Amino acid sequence: MAHRFPALTPEQKKELSEIAQRIVANGKGILAADESVGTMGNRLQRIKVENTEENRRQFREILFTVDSSVNKSIGGVILFHETLYQKDSQGNLFRNILKEKGIVVGIKLDQGSAPLAGTNKETTIQGLDGLSERCAQYKKDGCDFGKWRAVLRIGDQCPSSLAIQENANALARYASICQQNGLVPIVEPEVIPDGDHDLEHCQYVTEKVLAAVYKALNDHHIYLEGTLLKPNMVTAGHACTKKYTPEQVAMATVTALHRTVPAAVPGICFLSGGMSEEDATLNLNAINLCPLPKPWKLSFSYGRALQASALAAWGGKAANKKATQEAFMKRAVANSEAAKGKYVHTGSSGAASTQSLFTASYTY
Amino acid sequence: MPHSYPALSAEQKKELSDIALRIVAPGKGILAADESVGSMAKRLSQIGVENTEENRRLYRQVLFSADDRVKKCIGGVIFFHETLYQKDDNGVPFVQTIQDKGIVVGIKVDKGVVPLAGTDGETTTQGLDGLSERCAQYKKDGADFAKWRCVLKISERTPSALAILENANVLARYASICQQNGIVPIVEPEILPDGDHDLKRCQYVTEKVLAAVYKALSDHHVYLEGTLLKPNMVTPGHACPIKYSPEEIAMATVTALRRTVPPAVPGVTFLSGGQSEEEASLNLNAINRCPLPRPWALTFSYGRALQASALNAWRGQKDNAGAATEEFIKRAEVNGLAAQGKYEGSGEDGGAAAQSLYIANHAY
């Protein structure tokens, strides 16, 4: 093997590891507010609001101008490109509003999926072209972390070794480029819940996928202490007839993680997938109470599971701002409690929070 | 991907994981007494003793007749094939003596190194042929764990990708076969300290090797909770002019492990390589005081570093047996303390002074 050529200086490593730790400190998690234009379209359609730039801006404004105490629950927010440059009604940039609350600003970096020919409808993710220049610009514009979502599915002959290997490799290239530009890469290898497979099968696949991801990160000389992982929880497929408790989900999830994720990774922030707001919180809580060794922070990076009630409360009307903010704050606090294993389930939290948020073959 | 075909039943997994946890219970480590006939020749010639089967039996008797003091610091003993079937002067099989002390019996199962053609003097390790049948027999004869040593070396062009891949693969095959036979595999990918490379270089290589080992173990469906790792500590090469403190060795070692060894692995039992008895204890102690979170037990699997003084005291003389056994017990107790970070050194000031010598890990 040739002499190693350090990818990062000690100062670069220190900066990355401090950013990562800040995001997941003390039970904090991430608000994934990086829905693309198309995806916001789906969300807004459900509450019968037109998908215009102004409507998207208004909804994000309501979320980001919530009381500063949200910074006890939210350590980072992931933005979509458009949102990074939007302002509130007083002309203050959203990213500055968030930073003033002590929240770290992140940016979605991938550019959507592309098919893998010769597979059973599997995909890889695009976005590596010119990524370094884009990262440098985003860093100047106030971002300190990036996010890139790879998608794998369980099905006939799936995920194939090609899909696993290719997505792991793309994630590692993205992570490498981020770190070179002072951005902490959130690594997201989502195994989607579509299908009728059981919990054990999802655990098996998740272990194989994560082992491949961490081998790829090692091959690409990624500094693990300056990364975060955003995986799926281990759950049965959405069409599986067997039901599992949060404790079973927790045990399967933590088992898979502790067999594959090195202790150097400071935090694991789960995606919520198709889970309802309440399930996402209950499962996260159970995960934090799981008796297996858990050397990383186990927190959240939720999109739908933080915003469903807020969206329903808003309905596109400015007059509903306070109710919207309360709904959002309530989920933020609940999930932060869950990230410390301290969430106490309080009866009915309203229809929107327990409604399953599953959308078949979810794509951005 | 095809449905998973579980390699082990729940009962098999429990048995393996219980054995592993017993070996690395707090304050306990392993006596590596599995020197082959050829290796024993070197040890015995250094003290002027002829390398006969009887002398090897008499020497192991010195070690195994240690009194109950070793119960709290020795969790396992690795045997060589010949020794597994030997008895003490009273006709009591060594295996029984060890088991009666509540210590787990292990067996070396590899058959030595062979060259890898086309490389710069690199090797792989043989011993897979008929391994399953051999393991089944060893299990009947009292062994509950096994050990297999692979060897890698650092130089301008080594370890090569082939050497890393091939040794990782052969370790995974061995581990898989052991587990099928109820035997906990100790996985030993030793990177030799030969050379003039510095600490950083060893750390880099160790990370690459361990990442490959754990990927191979995952690919071969090995149950990590039922394995142990026996790695080298991260140290500079023997001919390196720079000297490092135990704290620097500890920080480099623990950093490398945190980046590669999944938390599911219950214990890491370091080999002593060419270290002196005292060095091996001081380094192990510093490792256990390292301020980084360590989710696995960090203990010893020492050969020379447990036996050097004992061998020297014995010198083949029956009259010296008692004194020699005392020397062994002394090192065993010292290392038992080091495995808990409680060894104060032979006259050296312990805890507080040493703490400040740990350089922050982002520098590694």
Automatic annotation (TrEMBL), chain A:
It catalyses: beta-D-fructose 1,6-bisphosphate = D-glyceraldehyde 3-phosphate + dihydroxyacetone phosphate. CDD domains: FBP_aldolase_I_a. Keywords: Glycolysis, Lyase, Schiff base. GO terms for cellular component: centriolar satellite; cytosol. Gene3D superfamilies: Aldolase class I. It comes from the Eukaryota. GO terms for molecular function: ATPase binding; cytoskeletal protein binding; fructose binding; fructose-1-phosphate aldolase activity; fructose-bisphosphate aldolase activity; identical protein binding; molecular adaptor activity. It is an enzyme of class 4 (lyase). Its EC number is 4.1.2.13. Pathway: Carbohydrate degradation; glycolysis; D-glyceraldehyde 3-phosphate and glycerone phosphate from D-glucose: step 4/4. The keyword RNA-binding does not apply. Pfam families: Glycolytic. The keyword Transferase does not apply. SUPFAM superfamilies: Aldolase. GO terms for biological process: fructose 1,6-bisphosphate metabolic process; fructose catabolic process to hydroxyacetone phosphate and glyceraldehyde-3-phosphate; glycolytic process; negative regulation of pentose-phosphate shunt; vacuolar proton-transporting V-type ATPase complex assembly. PANTHER family: FRUCTOSE-BISPHOSPHATE ALDOLASE. Belongs to the class I fructose-bisphosphate aldolase family. This is Fructose-bisphosphate aldolase. It comes from Octodon degus (Degu). The lineage of its organism: Eukaryota, Metazoa, Chordata, Craniata, Vertebrata.
TrEMBL record, chain B:
The keyword Amino-acid biosynthesis does not apply. Its EC number is 4.1.2.13. It catalyses: beta-D-fructose 1,6-bisphosphate = D-glyceraldehyde 3-phosphate + dihydroxyacetone phosphate. Keywords: Acetylation, Glycolysis, Lyase, Phosphoprotein, Schiff base. Pfam families: Glycolytic. InterPro entries: Aldolase_I_AS, Aldolase_TIM, FBA_I. One of its GO terms (biological process) is glycolytic process. Pathway: Carbohydrate degradation; glycolysis; D-glyceraldehyde 3-phosphate and glycerone phosphate from D-glucose: step 4/4. PANTHER family: FRUCTOSE-BISPHOSPHATE ALDOLASE. Belongs to the class I fructose-bisphosphate aldolase family. This is Fructose-bisphosphate aldolase. It comes from Octodon degus (Degu).
